[in-house]
Write a structure and sequence with these properties.
Distance between the termini of chain B: 58 Å
Oligomer: heterodimer
Radius of gyration of chain B: 27 Å
Number of strands of chain B: 29
Shape of chain A: globular
CATH architecture of the largest domain in chain B: 2-Layer Sandwich
Largest sheet of chain A: 5 strands, mixed
Strand order of the largest sheet of chain B: 3-5-1-12-9-10-11-20
Number of helices of chain B: 18
Structural class of chain B: alpha+beta
Distance between the termini of chain A: 51 Å
CATH architecture of the largest domain in chain A: Roll
Largest interface: A-B, 51 and 57 residues
CATH topology of the largest domain in chain B: Aldehyde Oxidoreductase, domain 4
């Protein structure tokens, strides 16, 4: 049974026909051509599909698309402005947290949701968020450093 | 030697595309008219197929075609041609392709799959190499003796032995007679998955003009090309393989795997591309596994600690098809001698067919499995000899003038294990251990030395195309697969150093396309920096020579009067007489427009020198380039939960030359974490019927950020080697090798418990602690 839902994605209002079973990840990737969010697992373990829905980081592979009708969604494609990458992206690059890059967009989006809500998040809170993201390349060391650097950069930007 | 670009932490050229979500991976590719395939997997791990009824599935909405293996004559494989794209008369493992539905969208394909009805006649199931070796064991392949295979290896007809590798050095029997002390034990490194976050996938497209096109999440485009060409009777030049960005590999995307199945399916709908992407469950059950290796080892030594003999028996549960596991097994055999010179070796490796998914490459390639045994046994031997384990090891390390198990004599350029040992010893054992135990924890420290050789085909070259552009910038095109390891940065830095041009003016290729890319065998064995880097050096030298030749004509001087500085070619005795690069790259143009000289684009390749197949005693030059290292750790064991917590992990490798400081640290930190996963968390479990019990990331217990070591010491020794660029050698796989033995040695140090199997999960630790009381 197909139905129509409306999403505001990266600031643009978009209507899309969906089938009842479809998950947000399928809709974003297959119908809206936003392929930055990735599929990596089937049990909400890896976090590669993370996008921000109404300010909250969500694993879009398990989220029914029809529950997102009317929602405000930010995906990895909505973060950089022109050729200027977001400070979180800058920080992760500087820390060497990008290797194969498959898990990276999801990590960026989770940190974006966290720091947008609470720029003073504690190290424990940051670690709790990152625990939901699996990475096979880095051993997490550079991701951890990148996350702390991102917080620092964002705080510095805010002071300006 | 002073370097301008080598050794610096320049940022990887693909970072921005990846972090903005714009890098294109296999599953991001859409092609006009593209169809989608779903693949049926059997209910049994070993059964005769009596019938497959596809009639109901064919009538489902969106279904274009239903495919089975009935009558399929295709056999493929690089070493032993025992693989089939789809089960024909029987199924041999639980994840085997049995039938496929091609439909307009993936959902329709999956729905229709449920309508296929299969009748089976179940057969006995083998889930372990030792079981497969039993006299009356059921045969996984009844006619394995008929399979084509490379000379010098292959299955033994009428058994489940897919290959038996034997290495003889000296006289092991005599060596054991001469020994004052002998230790013996069996170790098990169970099945695991490389488990990259990006699952396997492929697209195949049989065009109406009989050319074939394929996209794959693979690291071996040219092997796919050659094998598809052979199977479908086309010239290689009619097959075009594209490799987009890869979301990690760690071994299991090497060798041709899912591509033959997807191509077979797509061959039924010529004219339309067919895409298939593995679910995570399929990625576990139906692509390559790692390990599955039991090692029985016996070591003899004199009272003073000198080793006299080693006997190793490797039993490899390689799964239903042996093509991809064979060299893992052989590597486990001859590398079981580890970082030591052992005068008498009797090493045998049994490659056994079982009813499990095929084992293939996994970062470390046989080394961590058998050196897990070696390094645990060095500690056991030291205890028996009442000797300091560092002293025992030091008496036996390989080094200049020493002979490896395969009979190669090492030189200084092969690296220095003792320098690595010293670094790790200082980091882990530098200060006195504060306590062995408190209310909550046991504390322990452990150590392991290691050695790794590359593994490839003797002709496994890597090619390079280099071209200068009008403005003096450079484009480099190679066939090496970037899986995250950072080889693009290596190419950029090596070329920058050679050409004396800043890295930002050197553009390195993104995707691989067999139509445009130079030939590369496959990107495996931690060999890209060494071999690929050498190919880059050769291309750069050729390009500089071309520019000098043109400048010699233009300036009317002899070639040896000229030098090059990255900006121009100039007269040595008067640099004001020069021609800038821009005036040379497309030839030199005289004021009247007449032009002379070559267009500056060069091509070259590099392979490992004198790398050979082993002789009948397993002797040869199978190493050529060695990397030595050492690893150690400080751990805590939670008395209540049984959890092993890694407080500090230290690694040191003799890498010859660090090309990119930040990247090489990332490689080691990631490798250590991956092996910590195997040591403490991960295991793919099978029941007695061959069903995989935990093909999910959560149940496989893939480690998270909270499992990382609290501190990692990562240092490098730089004894330059002669093959790699500026002395560099491989490092990609090495960080996994010493992890399991050093952690288990530390567990013994903390508790006196002698684990010989991994993973040591909290449950197993708790049980062992309880049994000890």
């Amino acid at each position: 049974m197909s139905e129509k839902i409306t999403l505001t994605v990266n600031g643009t209002k978009r209507s899309v026909e969906i089938d009842g079973w479809e998950r947000l990840l399928d809709v974003l990737r297959d119908k809206l051509d936003l392929t930055g969010a990735k599929r990596g697992c089937d049990d909400v373990a890896c976090g590669a599909c993370t996008v921000v829905v109404n300010g909250e980081a969500k694993k879009s592979c398990s989220l029914p698309a029809k529950r997102c009708d009317g929602a405000e969604i930010v995906t990895i494609e909505g973060l950089a402005s022109g050729t200027e990458v977001h400070p979180i992206q800058q920080a992760l690059i500087e820390a060497g947290a990008v290797q194969c890059g498959y898990c990276t967009p999801g990590i960026v989006m989770s940190l974006y949701a966290l720091f947008t809500k609470n720029l003073n998040a504690s190290e424990d809170e940051i670690e709790d968020v990152l625990e939901g993201h699996l990475c096979r390349c880095t051993g997490y060391e550079a991701i951890w450093e990148g996350a702390l650097l991102a917080q620092k950069l964002l705080k510095k930007n805010k002071k300006k | 030697m002073e370097f301008k670009y080598v050794g610096k932490s320049i940022t990887r050229p693909d970072a921005v595309k990846k972090i903005t979500g714009k890098a294109i991976f296999l599953n991001d590719i859409k092609l006009p008219g593209m169809l989608h395939a779903a693949i049926l997997r059997p209910d049994y791990a070993h059964a005769k197929i009596l019938s497959i009824d596809t009639s109901a599935a064919e009538k489902c909405e969106g279904v274009v075609k239903v495919v089975t293996g009935r009558g399929c004559k295709i056999l493929y494989g690089d070493n032993i041609r025992d693989l089939v794209p789809m089960a024909v008369d029987k199924v041999r493992y639980i994840g085997e392709p049995l039938a496929a539905v091609i439909a307009e969208n993936p959902y329709q394909a999956k729905q229709a799959l449920k309508e296929i009805k299969v009748e089976y006649e179940p057969l006995p199931v083998l889930t372990d190499a030792l079981q497969a070796l039993e006299k009356d064991a059921v045969l996984v392949h009844e006619n394995s003796g008929d399979y084509w295979h490379l000379p010098g290896l292959g299955p033994i007809q009428g058994t489940n032995i897919a290959n038996l590798y034997k290495l003889k050095k000296g006289d092991a029997e005599k060596g054991f007679k001469d020994a004052d002390v002998v230790v013996e034990a069996e170790f098990n490194y169970p099945h695991g998955s490389s488990c990259a976050i990006e699952p396997h996938g492929a697209i195949a497209w049989f065009h109406e003009d009989k050319t074939i096109e394929c996209w794959s999440s693979s690291i071996c485009p040219f092997i796919i090309r050659e094998e598809l060409a052979r199977v479908y009777g086309r010239p290689s030049s009619d097959v075009r393989v594209h490799i987009p960005e890869l979301g990690g590999c760690f071994g299991y995307k090497s060798d041709i795997t899912v591509e033959q199945t997807v191509a077979y399916i797509a061959s039924f709908v010529p004219g339309r591309p067919v895409k298939w992407v593995a679910s995570r469950r399929e990625d576990f059950t139906s692509t390559l596994l790692g390990h599955g290796i039991r090692t029985r080892m016996k070591i003899g030594a004199k009272k003073d600690g000198r080793l006299t003999a080693m006997e190793t028996r490797v039993y490899h549960s390689t799964g239903a098809y042996a093509d991809t596991g064979i060299h893992v097994c052989i590597a486990a055999g001859h590398n079981s001698a580890g970082a030591y010179e052992i005068p008498n070796c009797d090493l045998q490796a049994y490659l056994m067919y079982t009813n499990q998914p095929a084992v293939g490459a996994y970062r470390g390639y046989g080394h961590q499995e058998s050196q897990f045994a070696t390094e645990r046994m060095m500690d056991m031997l030291a205890r028996k000899l009442k000797m300091d384990p560092f002293e025992l090891r030091a008496k036996n390390y390989l080094g200049p003038g020493k002979k490896t198990a395969v009979g190669e004599t090492l030189c200084e350029v092969n690296g220095d294990v003792t320098k690595c040992v010293d670094i790790v010893k200082k980091a882990i054992y530098g200060k006195k251990q504060e306590k062995k135990e408190d209310d909550k924890y046991f504390y322990g420290r452990g150590f392991a030395a290691l050695m790794k050789t590359p593994k490839g085909a003797p002709n496994s070259a890597k090619g390079c195309y280099l071209k200068f552009n009008q403005d003096g910038s450079v484009c480099i095109n190679m066939g090496g697969a970037e899986v995250g390891q950072g080889l693009r940065t290596v190419v950029q830095q090596v070329a920058a150093e050679c050409l004396m041009i800043p890295p930002e003016r050197i553009k390195v290729y993104t995707e691989i396309d067999t139509q445009f890319s130079p030939w590369e065998w496959q990107t495996i064995g931690s060999m890209f920096t060494t071999q690929g880097g050498r190919a880059v050096v050769r291309c750069c030298e050729k390009a500089i020579k071309m520019m000098k030749k043109t400048a010699a004509q233009a300036l009317r001087v002899d070639l040896d009067m000229l030098d090059y500085n990255g900006k121009c070619v100039y007269l040595k005795n008067d640099p004001t007489v020069n021609v800038p690069l821009e005036g040379l790259v497309y030839g030199y143009m005289y004021p009247n427009g007449m032009t002379v000289g070559e267009v500056v684009q060069s091509s070259d390749a590099a392979r490992l020198p004198r790398y050979s197949n082993p002789d009948e005693n397993g002797q040869g030059t199978m190493g050529v380039s060695h990397t030595f290292g050492a690893q150690g750790c400080e751990i805590r064991i939670d008395k209540e939960t049984g959890e092993v917590l890694v407080d500090h992990f230290a690694s040191a490798f003799d890498v010859g030359r660090v090309i990119n400081a930040r990247q090489i640290r990332g490689q080691v930190a990631g490798g250590v974490m991956m092996a910590l996963g195997a040591t403490l968390h991960e295991e793919l479990k099978f029941d007695k019927d061959g069903k995989m019990l935990n093909p999910f990331m959560k149940k496989y217990r893939f480690p998270t950020i909270k499992n990382r070591p609290k501190k990692q010491t990562i240092e490098f020794v730089e004894t330059p080697e002669t093959i790699g660029p500026f002395g560099a050698r491989g490092i990609g796989e090495h960080p996994v090798i010493g992890v399991a033995p050093s952690i288990l040695n530390a567990i013994y140090d903390a508790t006196g418990i002698e684990f010989t199997q991994i993973p040591v999960t909290p449950e197993k630790m708790k049980e062992a602690l309880k049994a000890r009381k």
